[in-house]
């Protein structure tokens, strides 16, 4: 029995060695006798006592045993193959691998999308400048900019992008507006905005953009002498330095702009320019000027009641280049008028015609607007507590230039809304003797 076990082991080991050392030639293998093989095998796998019995391997019983053991080998191999198959089957198939790859790709894409959705977004804050009142306007609203820039002969000028601001997060920056002066003020201080709007007549226009948590500082400066544009903000440290050297007071850091590249994606429209005026702008004369204030006008003087001849002199001289002044016009009118004090509507018509110009009496505000846009100067007889006459010229979004001959006493700024002038005509009947006392001199 012991021999059978040893021989079976020998056969198995021979099979192993033949597989492991297949590089030995067939001739070499044939040159080895059975005993040598058995000895070599048992040298590697058995004790010396077992080797002494290996010479009986040629006996029939031993042969049968070997055959019997050899017949059992395939079953062991099949078991090993089955085990090997089980291990191989743990590796995914091509389809399964593809699904895993797709799933992994989807997970990666989802992660990237989530990262993108969490990425901070920014918006551009633009800057406009008003060349008339020297105010700066800051806005992210492109429609607001377009509206302001498309005003006929607009005072607003586009200056480009100022800085980048967080689009949806950060501390709020408020804009408050003073309807009396037209000034805007920007502040991150909600209490300051509240006080200005609740106690000082300012209108809180709400949040206009955000301050970043960190980034480039935006500075605020103040100059009481600057008028409407007294408050100013800038991100430009050099601009801040220049202004402070010229008397502006540095009020500190107003908020933070985003430290991200400036993106300018707005193309400003062309500001419409009115057609070439039919007449130039009038020049200014004061009826109180000592050179003609004592010139007689009916039963009075130019200085006392000469607002109409002084208004006509401003138009004749400035708009049409005629060599006149309030005194010479008053002398001409004095020979035409039959009033005791000042000139009536009909007196104006006749005086204009005496100088070779035409005149149109105006009955509607819309007609007045049309003529002003075309560049014609107009004379308005108005009521400012006393009967008075002024020259109106130009038209810009409802505002006109006013030449007040009484040393600008009633219109010191030289500007007013056309509606406000239209709505206070003279109450003196003699001024209405040619219709509503508004006249375009052509």
Compact overview of the structure:
This protein has 442 residues and is of the alpha+beta class.
Structure description:
- With 442 residues, the protein is an alpha+beta fold.
- The protein has three domains: 2-89, no CATH class; 122-257, no CATH class; 296-441, Cathepsin B, Chain A, CATH 3.90.70.10.
- It contains 15 helices and 17 strands.
- The strands form five sheets. The protein has a six-stranded antiparallel sheet with strand order 12-17-13-14-15-16. The protein has a three-stranded antiparallel sheet with strand order 2-1-3, with helices on one face.
- Helix 1 (2-20) crosses helix 3 (34-45), helix 1 packs across helix 5 (60-89) and helix 11 (307-319) packs across helix 12 (326-334).
- Mean pLDDT is 80; it is low at 1-91 and 113-117.
- Residues 124-256 form the DUF5648 domain.
- Residues 39-117 are annotated as: Disordered.
- Keywords: Signal.
